[in-house]
Amino acid sequence: MNPLLVDAIAAAGAVLTPFCWLPQVVKIVRERDTRAISFPANLACAVGVGCWLVYGAALPDWLLIGSSAVTLAFMLVILGLKLRHG
Prior knowledge:
Blueprint: H1 3-19, H2 22-31, H3 39-58, H4 62-85
């Protein structure tokens, strides 16, 4: 496969993965309603993303590090708001 195509796919994934959580964060911040959010599922996702962050740091793969760091930040906001608002 063409290396430029591989890099473009990786970059698209690195942008789309963290920012798919942004609408959820905005909705929770605006509405202060987290009843429909599963804490265990989001915690498991955050732990998984944390593992990807460590893996990316071990390589070092800056696309993976950046994507994982932003995703983890969004996930931690969601978890924190879930703890705060129930």
